[in-house]
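Minutes, project huddle
Topic: does the predicted pose make sense with flavin-adenine dinucleotide bound?
PN asked that the exact inputs be recorded in the minutes so nobody has to dig through chat later. Recorded below.
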Amino acid sequence: MGGGPAGMVVSLLLARAGVEVTVLEKHGDFLRDFRGDTVHPSTMELLDELGLGERFNRLPQSRLTRIAFPVVGGRLIVVGDLGRLKVRYPYIAMVPQWDLLDLLADAAREEPSFSLRMRCEVTGLIREDGRVRGVEYRTADGSTNAIHADLVIGCDGRWSITRQQADLRPREYSVSIDAWWFRLPRRPDDNPSALMPHAGPGRFAVVIPRPDFYQIAYIGRKGTDAQLRARGVEAFRRDIAELVPWLADRVGELASMDDVKHLDVRLNRLDPWHIDGLLCIGDAAHAMSPVGGVGINLAVQDAVAAATLLAEPLRQGTITQETLARVRSRRLLPTILVQELQHLMHEVVVEPIIQERRMGPPKPVLALLKLVPQVSYLPAYLIGVGFRPEHAPAFARRQPVR
Ligand SMILES: Cc1cc2nc3c(=O)[nH]c(=O)nc-3n(C[C@H](O)[C@H](O)[C@H](O)COP(=O)(O)OP(=O)(O)OC[C@H]3O[C@@H](n4cnc5c(N)ncnc54)[C@H](O)[C@@H]3O)c2cc1C
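Predicted holo structure (tokens), as shared on screen:
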């Protein structure tokens, strides 16, 4: 259920193992703006193993090698230097998520046991004898259908209906920020190579370069969406121009506050991730904060782990609750560690800015990074590679398609 990064990767891998897979996706295409766009070194290495690396490299993309903070005097302190990583792809690729999903869907369609049904919105779980046996879904013409399956994998994101219907409730971390996304034009003479937050009192912005425009996240206090909209687009434009002065010449491109999309930032985790016949992975099992841009990559890692552990039992028809629990066991520690790190980043970097106590990372951290720039390897590794990178199982590996 759900054709996001988790759903497309797990179904591609299972289809390559010869398992019959059907993906139900409620939208008619993958063209949704303002979703995760950061593809990290570990995910690119995985795409290579799947034989999709060359296709991926041909997608329009910007490449970021550094995560930096501006400090007094207009200088930059690099907090994460991906160029230091000893990996095949020492950078973050900024790729529109729909391009990545199209690529995965095309690869999956090459497998005879794969099928993707768009405009199919799952509305409920089918239960028989206390076990999930499939789902009910609504098609574009409003009719209701059902599909039976040995296993339902809930990849339906952070507002997952599967987990809600299964009565699986996530534990929420407290989060004090929300994000507002919008885009502004990119000019040919702009040349950003670092992902750089621009902080001002009580708010900050992160400018993400795409090949022909900027995707911008404005981060402010949680629960202030109505207030922000009531102030109007002119005040919002002024805010952005103050935060990122080099964008002042183009903030007029924001026609109204309708161009600014609100994201209710959540950080949460299920425990457990399954009931009999149903497993949740990706954001459905653990919504991530946008800090570090790790959401896609973690969802992909869950999907690889799930396919690796479930392909054989699915082929043999021997899926049990213990098998499903193994997926969580394998992914729990990396998930907890990343969420704890995000929580720490919220407390140490994000909240002091939002509460107007400080404009960036603590001074001792900046001093250390200035004195020993090699320290920037660690954040780069944690973001780019992570705690337990998953690799493609043998059954899913392919030679590159040239
Ligand atoms: C605005 C925004 C910006 C983000 N920025 C970043 C970033 O820069 N980098 C990063 O790594 N992460 C980012 N994230 C997080 C990242 O997008 C997610 O962590 C990641 O996409 C999770 O993948 P997923 O497959 O688990 O879920 P999703 O990507 O949410 O996919 C869920 C899919 O399920 C479908 N679906 C939902 N309900 C149903 C239903 N009832 N029936 C059928 N289909 C359904 C949805 O249409 C969707 O396609 C961002 C998220 C948002 C919202």
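Observations noted during the meeting:
- The chain has eleven helices and 20 strands.
- Residues 1-7, 24-27, 34-38, 121-122, 155-157, 161, 181, 263, 282-284, 288, 290, 293-297, 299 surround flavin-adenine dinucleotide (CB under 6 Å).
No decisions taken; revisit at the next huddle.
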